[in-house]
Fold this sequence. Notes:
Layout: E1 2-3, E2 13-15, H1 22-35, H2 40-46, E3 56-59, E4 74-81, H3 83-86, H4 97-122, E5 137-145, E6 157-160, E7 166-171, E8 177-181, E9 184-187, E10 195-199, H5 201-206, E11 216-218, E12 226-234, E13 240-241, E14 259-260, H6 261-272
Antiparallel strand pairs: 1-2, 2-10, 3-4, 4-5, 5-12, 6-11, 7-10, 7-12, 8-9, 8-11, 13-14
Amino acid sequence: xxxxxxxxxxxxxxxxxxxxxxxxxxxxxxxxxxxxxxxxxxxxxxxxxxxxxxxxxxxxxxxxxxxxxxxxxxxxxxxxxxxxxxxxxxxxxxxxxxxxxxxxxxxxxxxxxxxxxxxxxxxxxxxxxxxxxxxxxxxxxxxxxxxxxxxxxxxxxxxxxxxxxxxxxxxxxxxxxxxxxxxxxxxxxxxxxxxxxxxxxxxxxxxxxxxxxxxxxxxxxxxxxxxxxxxxxxxxxxxxxxxxxxxxxxxxxxxxxxxxxxxxxxxxxxxxxxxxxxxx
Length: 280
């Protein structure tokens, strides 16, 4: 399943032979792109106007008015798991959105569970370690990047780590994702019929640093439109996060107290001066 170097745990991986058809990926990406092609009047109804809106579109970030530099993107964001709790709050247009994205998100959640099972096995954890409130939530973030007339002046997404367990990213064929490796930015070329898997910061904590959450960014370009869809698997707000006791710690990392995920999110975003965003 994995296409990457298993000995370099800080890398972002791509997975192939994952069981989701290419046609399903293309159709879901088409529906995502169609949202950003809807008339301005409809998109305006989805634009952020209060923090309680579940399905929202925003430009750059959720803190646009206070940003010093704006990002070159529009984003659609909403929760997708449990599906029955959120699906009726999603965009009504295009008319196929709720059914298409709902079916696809179920398969992505299943893929995430299989990947986390492999990760728990590799870490020596008990079977089903992540089959609880550690994976109670999944957020969909669709990023739309139009051509930028002056790519040197801004980014699509600035350098960051993902504050989740894992992010499963579906890209089109436009290169933009970059990984920070040994102090240098490396462009991560998309593979056909593959998903990008990014280890989140929570897995770094749970694994006692055996898995490293990679810093990454997305660059702009002057000629091509790019769309990506990130499916981020995360705990419930009140889930307690702590290093796994069954993992040995040869590097003698400091002992961390358990903390609620919602407290971690607040501290994470305040310390990074950023808004909730995902692998680009």
